[in-house]
Amino acid sequence: MNAQALALPHGRPKEACEARQHSTTPRSRAIGIRAGFERTEDDNARYTSNMTNTNGAPPRSSSLPASTNADVHALLSALSDPSVSLERAETLMAAWDGRELEALPTAFAWLHDAVAEDEIHAVTRLLLRWRDTDAGRVLPRVLRAMVGEAEVGDLNKIAAAGLLAVFGEPLHDADLAAYVQDPGAVKKAALRRVLDPRQGRLAIVNTIDHLAEREAEDLLPLIDDLAALGEPMGARLLAPLAHHVDPEIAVSAVAALDQLAAWRAGPAIAAVATNHPDEGVRTQAALTARRLDAARPSATAARPPLDGLAIRHARWEDGRSVLLISAPNHDQSGVRELITLHLAPGEIIAESAVLERVAQASIDEVESTLTEAGARIEDAPIDVATELLERATAHTLRAPSSASSMGWLAWRELVSPMV
Fold it and tell me: In sequence order, which residues have a C-beta less than 8 Å from that of residue 15 and are 6 or more positions away?
């Protein structure tokens, strides 16, 4: 499993992560990741030209006006506060829209030097927001050089590698491991980051989608790593893996959930215990389901669905249907995360898709297309949709040819989240 892909601060389609593979060449500290060009009085075009000069170094943050440095520091300090709401964070970051190049040297210096994980997460979120701006086009060169600096901390390098993956220039795991003091920390930090709900739902949803294409030799070590991590939040990946059509993978994931006493995975494991095509998996899952139920604290309510969750159900008379499950994107920018599930007659999930940053107008367009194709579309109350999805999960598990993919299992992250 690609470590920096797991470390993504927010999910991206796998095409972006697999677009190009590069090796990394260490940079001399004499070049200096932040040494290079002073900020001039020219416009942003000249500034961008400086940022993309051949030595790959951005202007020094010390060359910026003190007010700019102070304002960016204040922004990143606020974003580092774990109590800040997503809405508040979005408002703070939006204030710098159009001024990304002005803020970039200070933000990059923060990524380079930060020690606390919350600070690294904050600046990563901000830089990720800038991926489609002039600042985002400059960043890959300096991020790649930063990874090669001996003085940069491991977590900072992991964050830089995650950003490079988002920007379509991922590092090989071996390249990244060569530049960190503790290669094992790369794996642990990557897992913790993708499991952290602050990363947004799509980080984990995309990871689940990508796991469907991995071979057993990738998935079995990942299951061992999640168990060794010792955090019940690992159930966010282990529960989907427990549905895998390969009995070895499914049993390993169920055993890891048992080891972690991840009781919130109970409903998912119950479905495996009843419906998995392999008898050995069903037996192990049934035992684990009972133990997880016993581990559940008394009077513990289920997690509520995500705020702003919308479920639309398109149906045809021949038994086919499509579920459109969407929720606001984690950065509260007005766009949505969308999972589409195509159900064949018999409520078997035949096809699924996970899309990020989808405008509501685009979802409306999809609905219009479905209506033109003869579907009747209506809102699906969450309880009704959940019952349908549980039935579809059961039917799909019983049909191994359909269950070979796991992307469809991401529906739980939006409809019945574990965190």
Answer: none
